[in-house]
Amino acid sequence: MSGDGNLLEVTGLQVHFPIKQGIVFDRTVGHVRAVDGVDLSVARGQTYGLVGESGCGKSTLGRALLRLEEPTAGSVIFDGVDVRALKPEPLRQLRRRMQMVFQDPLSSLNPRQSVESLLVEPLSVHGLSAQDAEEYGRDSAKAHLAKAAAMLEVVGLPRSALSRYPHEFSGGQRQRIGIARAMVLNPDLVIADEPVSALDVSVQAQVINLLEDLQELLGLTYLVIAHDLAVVRHISDTVGVMYLGRLVEEAPSDDLYERPLHPYTIALMSAIPIPDPEVEDHRERILLRGDLPSPANPPSGCRFHTRCPYRQPTRCDTEVPELRVIPTLGEGRRVACHWAEEIAAGTVGVADPDLVVEPVR
Amino acid sequence: MSDATLTKGRLRAAVDREQNLLEVDNLSVTFARKGSRPVHAVDGVSFEVRPGQVVGIVGESGSGKSVTSLAVMGLLPSRGVTTTGQIRYRGTDLLGAGAKTLNDLRGREIAMVFQDPMSSLNPVVPVGVQVTEVLLRHSDVSRAEAKAEAEELLRRCGIPDPRRRLKEYPHQMSGGMRQRALIAIALACKPALLICDEPTTALDVTIQAQVLELLKELVADLDTAMIMITHDLGVVAGLCDFVNVMYSGRVVESASRQELFAHPRHRYTEGLLASIPRLDSPRGEPLRPIRGTPRDVISWSQACAFAPRCDHADDACATPDLALLVDGPGDHRMRCVHPAPLPGAEPDPPADVTGGAKR
Description:
The structure holds 2 protein chains of 2 kinds. Chain A is an alpha/beta fold. Chain A contains 13 helices and 14 strands. The relative contact order of chain A is 0.13. In chain A, α4 (115-126) crosses α6 and α7 runs parallel beside α8. The model of chain A has no long low-confidence stretch (mean pLDDT 90). The longest helix of chain A is centred in the middle third of the chain and has 18 residues, at 201-218. Chain B is of the alpha/beta class. Helix content of chain B is 33%, strand content 19%. In chain B, strands 6-7-8-3-9-10-12-11 form an 8-stranded mixed beta sheet, with helices on both faces. A 4-stranded antiparallel beta sheet of chain B has the order 2-1-4-5, with helices on one face. In chain B, a hairpin with a 2-residue loop joins β4 (81-89) and β5 (92-93).
């Protein structure tokens, strides 16, 4: 399995949360389909970016891959191992190879643990990795401390930070500690859930660059989850766009920007403000109407059809579009839209002129 | 213009197009608590807003942009806060004005949209009541008229089925819808000045695009001037006529939006532009972050506050109280000893040499 270059293979993954009602009987009256049938694969050493708006299920998907959230169906194959079939102890052992960086470093780091304690904890649970054991010697408090201090330096914090507590650091520094904690075990896969969105603009770039440097240094595979397409595009090799629990488009990151195929991606792209007045004034923008529908009761057919500016009278509201490969529109691209070819060719356009914002001048 | 013309009458007085609508002059806000050093959140900020103009205030957290807007609205607490300078709204000094004058102005002449629509709407009062409240307070309309007007306002702000929505409570609406309701409340009396404090930060991008488009339309229709406070340079690029960049309580650069983005002069503005990943920039180009954090500042009274993070800082930067100098076309001002060079000032690339070699 490991030979084909994919570190992570996900097929038909579903995470449904039951909606319970009643006091005595606690009946299940429905399900929130947070993740509803996602297929994706992440190649070794690459970065897969997952982008979508709040409520689209991207964070749940990331957590489900590590079984921090129990998937309800589908399979997750990590380096040839079926993660869903693992018993608790083998799963615990596997977790040393797949780690997570959380969004809000203030709430994901225990305020009463010093940085030293935070960084040594994963090591005392899992032990040093084989590679580190060669460098720092057998598992011992001293070896763990040496590794923790070395890791801290790698993420750009001084050794003196070891004895301090999370509240003594700024947001960017705290995120560095969170990253160090995830990387201290030498994992293969790191899932970063909104790693920069809680940070100041000028600090975001530092953390993005750090993540890129670490990937090069440690040979990591990333799954980066974010709502900011500009950030995701910057660091990812492949980008998957999620809408209401499903992937609607997947493409190499440059192709996605050059030529978005799915109507949702097109609208998402045109909604992102670009810090350049020249570009802003000259581009045509497509607005979406309304809000995200409830994932407890997703629309029939294509889930995007209620808000789609390109909606057609047939198929859209009855037939569920498959995430399909369209060879004529470029390699390595998958899109879940019945009309992708027609939209790309320009034969299907935006029906409602109110949704198109013409360039100013 | 006297106070009486401002505060009486049903609608706001007609705006004199020649006069500045708002003039903020040397505004300083200091938070002082017993036993701790006073914090200069805003430190001598001056800017003006002309009628119908959209002015942006850009800065990171802690730059004093929100405090500036609260000072203009007179919403800062009175205890422990010292506000000096002048805020003149159509000739009236708001800092010296009494509570009654301010209450008559707020909502009718100057309105504000806050960042978080959940915490700025009252959760136990239906949205309709919160909209009609403004109308009843500032104009002589009956309850029924106000209700009809509120319905029209919500419709204008893009809320579907407004009659039903009027009866609903804020928690029954989505984030985007709540922000639209907040905009409806702010624009109920067709104010001459609208202050938006990060109006779209809590929203998703597609909803942000809807809300920004709505604001743009409404402001143009009502001929309302707007102060847009944001940390997002992208929002500023598409919206504002004039931009003020703030750092550590002071305006470090101000220019028209075209000028600012084409020729950023202050090293902070330049650094900010280089550090954000752009959707349209080629991939693989590393970002050039500004080192340190916004908290690594020195007091302006000693040196340039940005110097600890600046790559071009030297001894000359240790000048106390650097002046905001006019520099370049379109009222471009900046506060920097070593500004980024203008494109024309750069040494010519050796293009002639290769041209000569070919010949």
